[in-house]
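notes to self, project folder thing:

trying the whole complex as one job this time. last attempt i did each chain seperately and stitching them together was a nightmare. two parts in total, labels are on each line so i dont mix them up again. if this works i'll redo the older ones the same way
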Amino acid sequence: MSQLGWARLQFGMTTVYHFFFAPVTIGLAVWLAILESIYVATGNEDYKTLVKFWGRLFLLNFAVGVVTGILQEFQFGLDWANYSRFVGDIFGAPLAIEALAAFFLESTFIGIWQFGWDTVSKTVHLLAIWLVALGTTLSALWILTANAFMQEPVGYTLVHGKAEMSNFGALLTNPQLWVEFPHTVLAAYLTASVFVLAISAYQILNQRQPHLFAKSFKFAAVAALVFGLGVAVIGDAQASHLVTAQPMKIAAAEALWKNTGAHAPWTVIGIVDSRDHQLKDAVQVPDLLTILAYKRLSGSLSGIHALASAAVKQYGPGNYVPPVAPVFYAFRVMIFAGVLMILGGLWATLRLRGNRFLTRRRLLKAMVWMLPLPYLANTAGWVMTEVGRQPWVVYGLLSTAVGVSPAKTVPSAEIILSLSAFAAIYTAIAVAAVFLFKKYTDLGATPEQAGPPSETDHYLHVV
Amino acid sequence: MDLNIFWFGVIGILFVGYFFLEGFDYGVGMLYQFLTPDDTDRRVALNAIGPTWGANEVWLITAGGAIFAAFPEWYATLFSGFYLALVLMLLGLIARGVAMEYRSRHDPPAWRRMWDWALTIGSFIPALLWGVAMANLVRGVPIDAQMNDTGSLLTLLNPYALWSGLVMLVIFLAHGAYFLDMKTEGALRSQAASAARWLGWPAAIAEAILLLWSSRLIHPSAWAVAAGLLSLGSIVTAVLVYGQKTIRMAFFLHGAGIALLTAASFLALFPDVMVSSLNPAWSLTIYNAASNPYSLRVMTWVALTLVPIVLAYQLWTYWIFRQRVSPKSPLEY
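result (full assembly):
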């Protein structure tokens, strides 16, 4: 593999890994803030017990999200020096603002929240978790402002071959940002909802404080349904936006090599044959792609061939086609996982009345098995977004191959070395994290959980 | 004063904050398992930095973001050029951050030993490497006409830079020892106190040698020399005043020494941000490495609005957690 290939693999691997932890953090912070608000408002100790239980899982998750985020702040410089030189003027600003506005807020108030149970008043403690929730969501806003620029460059002028910021307001009102940010944040809330739903179902199945976890289950069931629908609605708007903003990405996501007619069908599933440029054994719904793309009954979409020749005319000779198969399949994995989560949320919501869900083992087991779905959908979503933008790193402005660090400064060998080291440490951390998740889930939500010494003693008795 | 100078100053201040604050966190991380074999005392040490270390680390993240925003060429040259060193530092920070949260979540001694070492090594690496990095920034690395660093990891590991790394290491160790003496109680505190007594002079002597070496090697400006001498004076005074009743004063004097040493490095660097050892004309400066004036103006407004708020709530956290930590305190870590 080339130096460019290794650099892309390192960025992809570390970023996907980071995004295993970031969305749960964003969503669980809000979840904790809501639970603690109920506790402070009602004084019901059950909610404090729940805050402590979910708070422990949150902190285990948060730690990994934070440390893998440190790498994110620096790795544009590591392997993507030419990219950094090209866009630093614009891209650096949201990153710096993210640190200043979001990371300080999160890290300071998570300290107060985690260590301050006996030190600060109930109100201040509650305020702390709300500020953490605000910080995590702000962090998503700023990093997606940066990403949205890569998808749809706005507010810049090209000076001496570099993109310079000319309009900060345009960065913040980038239309891409305002479909991408709500889609990602709602997906984060959905991720946390499914996380809470799955673990609550698991606890109820194992008869661990079912009366407590029933409360979590009810919230999470409705939240999964609502956020699932929200993600889908915004996702649809985002895809419609792509039809004009990044038509090549949509063409790849639909494996359309030729222009469609005025009534384009949507392919539910099919086999991509990238060599012969066709879709085989496709199961299609008539007219649906046109309706999804344009919200009307007639309209055609451009195919890869036409878009590629238009790109050659605009940018000069070159290959402007992203890898079609991964984009096509990733799009479908995301959609199917999303639909399953909505259906799961609906099923659970329909069984809430009279606490019927408590005795429906099949439902509860299904909820447990939903746990991988948000992770799958999140990853697939980013694969579609980032692979679908290729060969560009900044759409229409800078190709990925040009953005990489020069090989004389960062040779392949160094990237292979760092990639192996990150893979090793990330694997070790994943093992430890899953182990502790399991342990603290199995400990259940007991009021004694307040002090770590007793909780670990308790665990020794359990095992 | 133009905005390029302002942003060079902002980044300098962010590094001052980072080295002052994470300096004692790294010091504690390196020291604590050698101060006591007792698990509760080790937890006391970690809980003393527990509520605040995360926000302290954000000073580094913000410095990285600020370099990217204000001086993208500096960001690109530095982190691609110091590739393996940066990767090593990131691995250290990753191991240490997870260790902090995971160490006390499970009982078996083997588990805790593993994370203790992750924490100690993960604190040792950044402490050492930042000393190495600062020395190389000031002294110069082989940067070509296209602003690419053509050196390797071995170029960075020259004797002068390694000595600077050692100075940083010892100064942070002493900073951690003063901190634990100030913030903990009981057996751990007396261990920390003897470590502080043991580390004070070596820190001062190592720094004195570094300053002498620097004055021969890099011809620093008068301002840099003044800051360096004040730094040394501060660290020596910390050793001299250090005692049972004056621990707080010693801690802040030593911290001022760290701040002034950082300031000295940045003053020695100014107006360059990275020196080319191949040709002075190829050095990166606060002008040729900078973002355009519009971008700097936007970032200036953002910084002037947010920094006071951030400083206020971060100081407030130190006030909230001003009590000493003892084995009887609720131990979260």
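what i see at first glance: The radius of gyration of chain A is 24 Å.
need to look closer tmrw
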